[in-house]
Design goal:
Elements (H helix, E strand, L loop, with lengths): L1 H9 L8 H5 L14 E7 L2 E6 L3 E3 L2 E4 L5 E4 L3 E7 L1 H17 L4 H14 L8 E6 L4 E4 L5 E2 L5 E5 L2 H11 L7 H15 L8 E6 L1 H6 L7
Antiparallel strand pairs: 1-2, 1-10, 2-11, 3-4, 5-6, 6-7, 7-8, 8-9
Helix pairs in contact: 3-4, 5-6
InterPro entries: ATP-dep_Prtase_HsIV_su (IPR022281), Ntn_hydrolases_N (IPR029055), Proteasome_sua/b (IPR001353), Proteasome_suB-type (IPR023333)
Organism: Rhizochromulina marina
GO biological process, one term: proteolysis involved in protein catabolic process
């Protein structure tokens, strides 16, 4: 009996942590403890860049180094996800259905998905976060029903999201620095700091109408 009590104390969670928080792994930089990856979106000078690393972790073990967590959906929509891969793909399918119902209306599609995600008995069990962007808007979608749009065009999620976000915001004011260079540098910093993020990046770039109109026209001689 005494031996059992000693063993029970030995495996007890540290003071101040719940049993669920103690067992959750990997731990995200924002404290959520769920999403062991980093996804970053940067919007600047008529370009939208979504970048993500390729590491898949299971506890303290790396099970895959080159997963593709950033994708191009339909015509002109970029999506990145953090969290359970199966859950994320289920949500991507639902988002694609909403985009088919409301073509060219990303905001409406995201709001509809967030409503269903929050209220549906099956969907609300899914553990993932989505970053979605088109030529006009960028959103972060969560299972709490949130549809968040960044004021500066920069947002990040996942275990290294806070590092990538801070680095990208610091680099955004550097003159003549391309948004793709900002995203690559910020993700490199996040990968250097976060053990659940590697340097195997997937990058998708979308040019907006602003970037096309800003290009100088060819002058005929």
């Amino acid at each position: 009996m005494m031996m059992r009590q000693v063993l029970a104390r030995a495996v007890r969670a540290p003071t101040g942590l719940s049993r669920a928080a103690y067992s959750a792994s990997p731990v995200a930089a924002d404290g959520s403890g769920r999403h062991g990856t980093t996804i970053l979106c940067v919007r600047k000078e008529g370009k939208v860049v979504v970048i993500g690393d390729g590491q898949v972790s299971q506890g303290s073990m790396v099970v895959k180094p080159n997963a593709k967590k950033v994708r191009r959906m339909g015509d002109g929509v970029l999506v990145g996800f953090a969290g359970s891969t199966a859950d994320a793909f289920t949500l991507l399918e639902r988002l694609e259905e909403r985009l088919e119902e409301h073509p060219g209306q990303l905001t409406r599609a995201c709001v509809d998905l967030a409503k269903a995600w929050r209220t549906d008995k099956y969907l609300r069990r899914l553990e993932a976060v989505l970053l979605v962007a088109d030529k006009d808007v960028s959103f972060e979608l969560t299972g709490n029903g949130d549809v968040l749009e960044p004021k500066d065009g920069i947002m990040a999620v996942g275990s290294g999201g806070a590092y990538a976000l801070a680095a990208a915001r610091a680099l955004a004011d550097v003159p003549d620095m391309d948004p793709e260079d900002i995203a690559q540098k910020a993700m490199t910093i996040a990968a250097d700091l976060c053990v659940y993020t590697n340097h195997n990046f997937t990058v998708e770039v979308l040019e907006t109408d602003e970037s096309r109109t800003s290009e100088p026209a060819d002058v005929e001689k």
